[in-house]
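fwd from M.: "can u put these together and see what the complex looks like"

so here's what she sent:
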Amino acid sequence: MTQEEIITRPLRRLDPEDAQEALTRIQDVLHRQQLVSDLVHRQEAGDERAGLVESVVQRQHESEIKALLDDLHPADIAFILESLPKTERQAVWQLVGTEHDADVLLEVDDWVRESLIEAMDRQDLVAATETLDADELADLAPDLPPDVVAEVQKGLTEDERAQLIEAMGYPEDSVGAIMDFDMVRVREDTTLKAVLRYLRRMRELPDHTDQIFVVDRQGRLQGTLSLSRLLVGDLKSKVQDVLSPDYLSLSPLDSDADAARAFERYDLVSAPVVDDQGRLVGRVTISEVVDVIREDSEEQALSRAGMQEEDIFAPVGMALRNRAPWLFLNLCTAATAAFVASQFEDTVSHIVVLAFLMSIVAGIGGNSGNQTMTMIIRALAMGRITGHNVWQLVKREMTITVLVGLCGSVGAALFAWLISRSIPVALVMMAAMVCNMLVGTTIGVLVPMLRARFGKDPAMGSSVLLTFATDSLGFFIFLGLATLFLL
Amino acid sequence: MTQEEIITRPLRRLDPEDAQEALTRIQDVLHRQQLVSDLVHRQEAGDERAGLVESVVQRQHESEIKALLDDLHPADIAFILESLPKTERQAVWQLVGTEHDADVLLEVDDWVRESLIEAMDRQDLVAATETLDADELADLAPDLPPDVVAEVQKGLTEDERAQLIEAMGYPEDSVGAIMDFDMVRVREDTTLKAVLRYLRRMRELPDHTDQIFVVDRQGRLQGTLSLSRLLVGDLKSKVQDVLSPDYLSLSPLDSDADAARAFERYDLVSAPVVDDQGRLVGRVTISEVVDVIREDSEEQALSRAGMQEEDIFAPVGMALRNRAPWLFLNLCTAATAAFVASQFEDTVSHIVVLAFLMSIVAGIGGNSGNQTMTMIIRALAMGRITGHNVWQLVKREMTITVLVGLCGSVGAALFAWLISRSIPVALVMMAAMVCNMLVGTTIGVLVPMLRARFGKDPAMGSSVLLTFATDSLGFFIFLGLATLFLL
């Protein structure tokens, strides 16, 4: 943004609620436009007047929407586009000022970006993307038509082209994929005064510059210098004498989740990225880290329901492909459990009431195991579980389960007695429930720990395995005990 | 940290993995110490030599642990303390240098802080807390003995005491509870040169100062000035001419989750907090926001398993109180579902195989509803659901469910035929499954939306209601259809 723009444009107070209101008003306008179009199309074909009215009204509506959009931050525009179904989204996208195109494309979620790019012609795309930095271009490149990428990268400098290639080469969940190249670097033997002069010559500092990076002659990172230290420090000091006492450096191949943990723990705003020779190659900022934290937590919530990221307006076919596999998997495990239970058909046909009790045994085992599993996955993610405390943890979980199980099974036994009027049935219920809760706890501890031991994500798939075990074994234990003691 | 310390202490490269290694080594030492103690206690009582050996070894172990701790950042020390059981935690806490006491107390999770404070005497507590800022003291105050708070606040200035009282007065999940008072404020009519001179007179800037706040004569916020603009701007410019073009301001009573969303959307590092007259009263920084985001996501994961935050080393009694209510609630809903099913005892005793199939119908209904519910809760949290798109969403979810249901129910019907060899049973299975999936979808859409409409957290308790409905109605629909068509 140039100096003139700053002075001419009034200050904008940001507020996500304004964006939400703008969304509702845009939906209103689109709805009115739809009503007019419907009306016009009900007229006889070729009624020129009606067509004329429609186009006048449409222009009016478009300028209404444009006015709403013009007041908004690109991130708010991205929010609005994400909240509209595809056709309306593409219509509104045409009305977004071209100066925001690049920013909005960077801001929107992956699943929306595709539909926006689809609605742009080659020329618009080149115009929007030729202003991007190498790391930003690398983020968009997979979604852009290859000829646009080829065209745009012609405008890059040699250095930037090398950065683009580097940034595109890192795996998705690595630090390399979220780093940028907007670093201010200074040599350790300069004075603060010289650094200040150097900064003043730049037109603006990169976003989120809270510190500048200090390197030696070979470009190896020596430490960092915070802007606030630079501002309050003695101008005659050498950079090397006022380095920040602590610094964190990342490697491009570190996992982004680990980097996020480090940012959280040490309250960082930015961190340098160095290669294996210690040379400064990039920088990670808190805004990327916040996205990583949010995305990881949403991914977890979705994967627990067996889904991946899904556009609420994605075509039904896409949603089917997203959701069906999980339901099918659950159908298979439920069928297996049912098959296990059906092996006790004789027992159940003698004492029908067992059929109604067995699902309680299975369900509570699953719930109890899920509590243990949630605890363990969390402790693993925090790095709290070490060789030393595993057994202590396991003993603790078992104790808790037995105690909760004993109390709970008294309630369950009472219920069993109420609907069966048989004390032996109640006792079998009690024993089976405690046993199945222990099954749940065992799975809840073992599965995540084994997965973590073998370098896998401890959460993934654990819950299916848990339900599978507590359902099948729950039926087996309950009906097995009943067969032994009640027939 | 004073200038001398910076120069004498070597640069410290932060790395969470080092902390993890230190944890393992500290556990090793504690383990060895335990072995020695056990050995000594097996000797006859009054064996002085053994006691002597023990205390020598203990001193050696203590200095080993001290050496490990001295190298660590307070946040790493907090991590280690959080990862130890209570007695060991308190023992290690005694070995932490007193200069870190305050920082560590601020860093640790709530459930650990209590046990650390318990292990400190009054004098240590006063020493540790008298250096704190008002907002930090407000965070610790609920856990501190009242006489310590009374003692420490005597040392505060009038202003700070007012801030302390203000900070303690805001509700837990509000912006007021996470704001601090470490702001740099300047008047709009000063020049950049004067601002730089003013900053240089401060010994250091507050953490996370990426911008300073511009106020008028009455202390009302006029805008913000970023440090980087200050560094590159013309020294003769007035502050009011180089204000940042966009700014976000918060109110102390805004919810912290909303503030976090705003930080994420606009990529902020800090934001001013103003009262209802527009006067600047505080500041929120990204480090607090990151904590809010992480805590909200963990709270969600825990509450889905019916738990609250739990220390992995909390006493068993506390864990019981945390977990039992959820299991009891689930026992009640499962028992109700079983009771519903037991009303069809006649039907089941005629066709026993129904007993094994009914849990499949219930389970898949729950899984399918859970997918819908996850989508809806997420869309609600993002503010994407408005009056305009509700029906579109509902129609979409219903279509998806019917389509997935039809495919899936063919598989289920096949399984039903395999274990029953009866086509009517297979057909009833198919119909019941599709119906129950629609029940799941309806609950999955309605419950979160109604809760949100009435201003409640859409996620809370929704999953219990969902399971309850899909279990009870699943049994009812399946056995009901069977009673109508198969007897």
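replying to her w this: Residues 316-486 of chain A form a domain with the Tetracycline Repressor; domain 2 fold (CATH 1.10.357.20).
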